[in-house]
Amino acid sequence: MLSLNEGSLDRGIRIVVGLVLFALVFTLTGIWQIIAGIAGLLMLATGAIGFCPLYRIFGISTRPRSPATRR
Hints:
By secondary structure, the chain is mainly α. The protein has one domain. It is built from 3 helices and no strands. The longest helix is centred in the middle third of the chain and has 19 residues, at 31-49. The model has no long low-confidence stretch (mean pLDDT 91).
């Protein structure tokens, strides 16, 4: 099961950047168009879901801890 590891600010930034990158698909050409489309979709997906696989690999979390788990 995926545990969320993105905070609300992180998710918002990812969604905005994803939308910008996806919009670039209509202005770029060639390989840059493909790269912008894939990167935009990945940013939108991770922002919408709240889980980033790279954060999991590196042990990063921008999600605030609940008071019960803080020490």
